[in-house]
Amino acid sequence: MASTFAYANSALRDQISLKEKRSIFMVFWILVFLAGNTLYLLYTFNSQQLYNSLIFLKPNLDKLDFFDLMWMVGITDFVLKYLTIALKCLVLVLPKIILAVKSKGKFYLVIEEISQLFRSLVPIQLWYKYIMGDDPSSSYFLGGSLLIMYSLCKSFDICGRVGSVTRAVKVLCAPQSYGVRASNQQCSEAGNICAICQAEFREAVVLLCQHVFCEECLCLWFDREKTCPLCRSVAVETLRCWKDGTTSAHFQVY
């Protein structure tokens, strides 16, 4: 599962970096690859009804020990990561007329933050079941104490992730602009060639450091960096992670 995730995550990030030159066939292959792995996992463990965990329902297990808990949380977390990458693939294949390439990074960010929030919510009912055990009355005090501690830790985690989702939505709704439109003279002085894509300028913009780039190239660059590609002067105050299409490899244990 880890190798499947690493491959799909890396392949998607590479395709996003290609912008309009991305391969539809490769994106389709990533979707098929993830769908096949997901269906195989759910079919293999069909008797346990692991898919119930994805919608906050109880899986079909007579007894839940710590090994079973980690196993179920891990599989569920990877399946949700697969779904996250699949959603980003769908955003990637949208034509430019529907969604501009320079705006897709904001959608990747929102998808990732919502995914991390959802992934943090899914294990709750599994942990509650494990902490309380099959017979809550036999360890009521200990189970109750652990449940309170878990709930407090989880509350802080969820609050932080809700805040991240809120900030991501604000980024999505806010207009995105880097620098100002470059004049013909500024483009000529820069050689009429974008230093990022090594092609003629398209909708050229000039930064405060007076370096000129394609607006689309610049937006994709600032999805990963916050400095000018040439002089490395700081051009944006805050670097937003996940706008490059990367999906977090963090394992949501609890």
UniProtKB/TrEMBL annotation:
Entry keyword Nucleotide-binding: no
An annotated GO cellular component: membrane
Keyword terms, alphabetized: Membrane, Metal-binding, Transmembrane, Transmembrane helix, Ubl conjugation pathway, Zinc, Zinc-finger
Transmembrane intervals: 23-43, 69-94
Any GO BP: positive regulation of ERAD pathway
Location(s) in or outside the cell: Membrane
MF annotations from Gene Ontology: ubiquitin protein ligase activity; zinc ion binding
InterPro entries hit by this protein: RNFT1/2 (IPR044235), Znf_RING (IPR001841), Znf_RING/FYVE/PHD (IPR013083), Znf_RING_CS (IPR017907)
Membrane topology qualifier: Multi-pass membrane protein
Domain RING-type: 194-232
Domain of life: Eukaryota
Chief location category: membrane
Protein name: RING-type domain-containing protein
Organism this protein belongs to: Laticauda laticaudata (Blue-ringed sea krait)
Lineage: Eukaryota, Metazoa, Chordata, Craniata, Vertebrata
